[in-house]
Amino acid sequence: MTPAVEQLVRDTMDLTGAASPELLMEDAPTLAGEVLEFEQPIDTADDAVEHDFYLVGIIGGKDVGKTALVNAIVGQQMSQVIGHGPGTEIAIAYVHDSREQKVRELLNREVAGKFRVVVHQVAGLERQVLLDLPDIDSQYESHLVVTRQMLRHMLFPIWAQSVEKYADMAPQQVLGQVAAGNDARNFLFCLTKADQLDAHGGETAAAELREDFARRITRTTGLKKSPSVYVVSSRRPDKYDLPKLRTLLARQKTREAVRESKELASKRQDRSLLDWLTRQDLSGQADRLGRLLAEAQETIQQRVTTPLVEKVLPQIAADPANKLALSDEILAERVGRWPLVNLVHTLLSPLMLMVRAFASKSPSAMLSADGMVEQHLRSQSFSAGQVLQSAFAQLRQAHPAIGQLYGNQRLWEEMDAENASADLSRRLAGTVERQRQAARQRLTPSGGWLAPARWLLTIGALLWFPIIQPMLEAILPQKESITFAQTLGILVSVLGVNYLLKSVTFLAVWFVVLWLALRWNTQRKVARMLSGWRHADDEDPELNLATQAMEWNDSLTTPIGVAHDKVASLAKRATELRAQIVTPSRTDAA
User: Which superkingdom (predicted)?
Assistant: First the structure.
């Protein structure tokens, strides 16, 4: 069989839990992989190569005359004909002496102690080994083991049924099992004990039975046309079809014919496995999983995610306390770079906190991200764990497959549902914390071209308004140059108590205005930034609460989605492999 087909079947078994096809069972009566291998190139091999042989075996039930048929074919007494009792108990091999050692090695490996070898030196039969096996319907388990083991190495079975029992169902079922692992065109089919027909029409009766048996074989094996059936009699070897059968088996098959038969058997195994895959209905399973995935996503979204996105997340995103506290924190960072304005901030911040405390019930201190998320979940009476548990209990009741798909994540149970709810809280809290970090990084730039402007508006104002501007105002109107003494006089006047009091008042107003401008600018930027992160199309999903909620929603259905993708992939592989495996056009074996 093709390794790709076998691997696909094993992948399907692992994923779906389906029982193994009989073809892959260790005791299945089907050709082993080693039989289908070519150890010697056709153009260089010759009959002296010891390992180059193939097995032809007589297979049949109790009292069909297998041993007598073997004796008649080889023309000598290979084994004693037993008409009663357990019948043939061991494998008997009729082998050319050039292949005796290798055949013994095979028999010792497969049926140790339960075989006998009859050696011949017939020219032209060096590579053909003829086997007589125990009954396929024997009541002795040891007999069945021998037959099954050798069937795994028999490329060319001779299926024998007596004219009395050819319509029995049990042998037909075994034939179907054997033909699942070997192309029926490699078989020969015989009706034995034809001498019993002499009193009932002879050749005419034989023709009717031959035709009926061929129809049954065609139906069982799936051959496109009826095979040839040899009607034989060991007691009357010169009558009916035994001479034709003996002539056919007296010539060993060419290596090219053996190679073709192996290719047929390999492709038959592939088709058997692909038929098993067809019965698994992988495409149907994938479709059902797809519908289950859509239903689960819709149920969770309606009962859990939508209320969360519409009620809870807007409250978290618009939390005024978080916005003010974050603005205050960023403002403290920004004013630290403004000389003198930081002093105003230190003096006025407590006052602003007092005013805010009287005017608002919201706490001004920044809660941790976890605390803020839990606060809003409680304020909206939203329990994700309970709603999630209820939703999955409903899904599991409607679709029992949920239980298998969620083996280690039983979301219909309280503990696992609460764990999923805790994961949601961690995702939201992590998003809030990332928003805070992003706001701090974007709104508190270091240095840059604004540094001269900050110094100009602070230290420059401190020098300009109380000192430089008044002095220039007094000096510039003078038409003549003033003396040093006059300059000192102007300076003393400017630095006088009355004048300084006026300047200090103005500077206080100036720096308060700067502080208020910084405060307003910070709050506006924070509000704009937080508002932008509320949109689902934000370029950074790590900063969007709604996106994180939807990702959490998707994670809840990941087991279904993964199973769907895997089954769909298996179905696609099966379709591609089926298209690659072409049924050989070789004419049915005669």
Answer: Bacteria
* Domains of the chain with CATH codes: 49-258 (3.40.50.300), 286-562 (no CATH)
Three-state SS for 582? coil
Burial 552-566 (b: 16+ CB within 10 A, else e): bbeebbebbbebbeb
The whole-angstrom separation of Cα 566 and Cα 58 is 45
- CA dist., res. 316 & res. 262, Å (int): 71
**CA torsion angle for 272, 276, 279, 283 (degrees, to 10)?**
-110
Integer Cα distance of 87 and 138 in angstroms: 8
Q: In the numeric block, which tokens belong to residue 67?
A: 């041993």
Query: How many Å separate Cα 302 from the centre of its chain?
Result: 28
Euclidean distance between CA atoms 411 and 402, whole angstroms: 10
Residue with tokens 């969360």: 308
Quickly list DSSP for 56-72.
EEEE--TTS-HHHHHHH
Contact 117, 100 (CB under 8 A): yes
- DSSP bridge pairs for 229: 189
Rounded CA gap, 526 and 507, in Å? 28
Q: Name the 3-class secondary structure at 81.
A: coil
pLDDT one digit per residue (tens) for the chain, 590 residues: 688 888 888 988 888 888 888 888 777 777 877 777 755 554 444 444 445 889 998 888 777 777 777 777 766 655 555 554 556 788 888 888 889 899 999 999 988 889 989 888 888 888 989 888 887 767 777 888 888 888 888 899 988 888 887 777 777 888 888 888 888 888 899 888 888 887 777 788 888 888 888 888 898 888 888 888 898 887 887 888 888 888 888 888 888 999 999 888 888 888 888 888 888 889 998 999 999 999 999 888 888 888 888 888 888 887 777 787 788 888 888 888 888 888 888 888 778 777 766 665 555 556 788 887 887 878 777 788 888 889 889 888 988 888 888 888 888 989 998 998 899 889 888 888 888 888 888 887 666 667 788 788 888 888 887 777 777 777 767 666 777 676 777 677 766 666 767 778 888 888 899 989 988 988 888 888 887 777 655 567 788 888 888 888 888 899 999 999 999 999 998 888 888 875 444 444 33
For 191, the 3-state DSSP assignment is strand
DSSP-H helix ranges across 301-365? 306-307, 313-317, 320-335, 341-359
Q: Which two tokens stand for residue 575?
A: 């379709």
With CA atoms as reference, report the closest residue to 345 among 325, 330, 331: 331
Q: What is the DSSP letter of 186?
A: G
Burial class (CB in 10 A: 0-12, 13-18, 19+), 188: buried
Q: What does 21-44 look like in DSSP terms, one character per residue?
A: PGGGSTT-SS--GGGG---S-TTT
Give the whole-angstrom CA distance, residue 218 versus residue 176. 10
